[in-house]
Amino acid sequence: MAKANTVFVCSNCGNESSKWFGKCPACNEWNTCYEEKLTSKTNSKSGTKKVATPVKLNEVKKQDIVRTSTGFTELDRVLGGGLVKGSLTLVGGEPGIR
Ligand SMILES: [Zn+2]
Fold first, then answer.
1. Which residue in 3, 23, 1, 2 sits closest to 13, CA to CA?
2. Of 27, 28, 69, 93, which is least packed with CB atoms within 10 Å of its CB?
């Protein structure tokens, strides 16, 4: 079993570490560390590599498109609700020139 597939998590505050800790560096609690296997858990924190699962084309649903809000209401509307993961969107134009 590969060591890289394991992460150590604090049961008190949820702090994640690649190494085992006796005292949590985040909340300073002792013996709250437990080992967690990285499987299908989706956690975007701390650069954990996501493994993409291949999906058959006829099983791809349109609803699976996740749009991420850019934080700009106007831009979100132009993009159709936000940025689509994996897509490339070029945003250009200069204000005042039409
Ligand atoms: Zn903690």
1. 23
2. 93
Query: Cα of 46 to ligand 1 centre, how many Å?
Result: 15
**C-alpha 52 to ligand 1 mean position (Å):** 30
SS3 for 75?
A: helix
pLDDT tens column, 41-91: 555 555 566 777 887 877 766 666 678 888 888 888 888 888 887 777 776
Closest listed residue to residue 32, CA positions, set 48, 49, 15, 45? 15
Kindly give the distance from the C-alpha atom of residue 23 to the centroid of ligand 1, in angstroms, as a whole number.
8
